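Subject line: Sequence and fold of a protein, written as structure tokens
Body of memo: The sequence and its backbone structure tokens, given next.
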Amino acid sequence: MAFTELRYESFTPNHIRVAKDLEAFSEPMQLAVHTGIFIALQSLPQIFPTVLALEVLLSIYIIWTSMQLVLRYKTSPALFGPLYMADSLTGFWSESWHNAFAAPCQSVAYEPIRKLLPQWGIPVPVAKGLGIISAFMLMAIFHIYALAPILPRSSLVRIGQFFFLNGVAMVGEAAVWGRKKHWLRRILAWTFELALATWTAEAAHIPNGLSRIPWADICGPPEDFCAHWPGRAVSLYDFPVWSFVGFLGVATVMSEAGTLVYA
């Protein structure tokens, strides 16, 4: 299920992307373009956190898009938009970055907060902003849990801060710019995102290049997890894949509960 239901489609249909026949780009061509950029970055010195941060971003794009092209439904829209076309933080996270978790973020985090807080007297714009931040916090929790077997605690904290700050910045950007597009907005968005990604990469202990990735630690026995979290019992859920499946299960139950409450 984790490798075929890339967009949570069995539980909450995701309408973030346009239909496949309306896409203005070729997904295989974009995969080739982003792979070329990744290869070019690999030729640079691998000691700069910004380079490593960009490589992580492109690695996710390449791996997930490759899976998408093999496992997709015939009518599935593109998983990513062209990353270099993002013109704002809102555009990056809602239009360019992958939409694999967009539906659970909306049904499990955003919609309940957006609908519940106004009932308590919170203004709707504030409730929407808090809903967006809660969606990013959901992703922060998921990424921390999924990456716990392979990253030290300091790195996991930094990753959580990365998602939280992106949520806050996205709300702030929308409050200042609204739906207006502007070259300054694009520059500010990319400056912020690269600076935050660089700051996160500095603490993430990312290998300097593909040849130095510790595959044995990533794919090996879960005992390595104890080095980062002393005294913790090891279970099947210490593996990233099982973490993903467990997240989908919890999200499904929460989503169904939300549907009953807000129907």
About this structure: The CA atoms of residues 254 and 260 lie 10 Å apart. The chain has ten helices and no strands.
